[in-house]
């Protein structure tokens, strides 16, 4: 059985790591690269990451790689476009996360892509998460692993959390918001993440239950969740 206290601390670490890297970004490209860098750094089993966005060129719509952690991730994206299948392409049209923990399995949902990845790259597992901006499907975050079976359980949960942050970052970049606006949003989410981790550790509850506690307390106190989370974190520090 998973230790919820430990899980809470790891969730808080993910918020902190992502915020720290994004703080150093000055433009959209650096933001995308930062998300890929953090994905590899904090998601267990993730060895490569990329972001693909929809771009319209005249009357033609294309899906382009705007950032990749390395050449392996960039090649994986290229193979998705060549074969016409994969986690990113499916994530663009499906609300659910696209998870294939073992591409070597004969029942893989992307047989053409899997065959090329296995033959040409070390990749053996893949995840795809849709990225939304104002309810528009603008792209996807791709995570790739070199070990089959790693994208399961808690590892997948942490990947979902990073994908949520990726949506925040991409939204700000696509809207053209400045770095201070982005950092303000990341700061709020980071405090919420820390508060969730503390509540999980103190009360032995899941992350969903901890967030529900925050929501109820926020409603009763008539303060924003981010403000309440900040108070909890500051109180703990004192």
TrEMBL record:
**Where would I find the ANTAR domain in this sequence?**
172-233
The record's listing under InterPro entries reads: ANTAR (IPR005561), CheY-like_superfamily (IPR011006), GAF (IPR003018), GAF-like_dom_sf (IPR029016), GAF_ANTAR (IPR012074), WH-like_DNA-bd_sf (IPR036388)
- Transcription is among the record's keywords: yes
Q: Which Pfam families match?
A: ANTAR, GAF_2
SMART domains per UniProt: ANTAR (SM01012)
Keyword annotations for this protein, in alphabetical order, are:
Kinase, Transcription, Transcription regulation, Transferase
Q: Which residues cross the membrane?
A: none
> Is Transferase tagged as a keyword?
yes
Superkingdom assignment: Bacteria
GO molecular function terms noted in the UniProt entry: kinase activity; RNA binding
**Protein name stated in the entry:** ANTAR domain-containing protein
């Amino acid at each position: 059985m998973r230790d919820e206290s430990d899980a809470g601390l790891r969730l808080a670490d993910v918020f902190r790591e992502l915020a720290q890297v994004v703080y150093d970004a000055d433009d959209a490209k650096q933001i995308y690269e930062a998300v890929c860098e953090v994905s590899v750094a904090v998601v267990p089993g993730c060895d490569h990451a990329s972001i693909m966005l929809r771009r319209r060129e005249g009357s033609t719509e294309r899906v382009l790689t705007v950032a990749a952690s390395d050449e392996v991730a960039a090649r994986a994206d290229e193979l998705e476009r060549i074969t016409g299948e994969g986690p990113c392409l499916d994530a663009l049209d499906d609300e659910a996360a696209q998870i294939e923990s073992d591409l070597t399995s004969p029942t893989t949902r992307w047989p053409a892509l899997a065959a090329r990845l296995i033959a040409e790259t070390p990749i053996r597992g893949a995840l795809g998460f849709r990225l939304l901006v104002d309810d528009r499907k603008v792209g996807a975050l791709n995570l790739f692993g070199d070990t089959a079976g790693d994208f399961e359980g808690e590892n997948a949960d942490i990947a979902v959390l990073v994908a949520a942050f990726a949506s925040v970052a991409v939204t700000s970049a696509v809207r053209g918001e400045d770095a201070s606006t982005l950092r303000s949003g990341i700061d709020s989410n980071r405090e919420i993440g820390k508060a969730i981790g503390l509540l999980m550790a103190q009360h032995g509850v899941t992350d969903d239950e901890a967030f529900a506690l925050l929501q109820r307390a926020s409603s009763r106190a008539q303060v924003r969740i981010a403000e309440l989370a900040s108070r909890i974190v500051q109180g703990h520090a004192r």
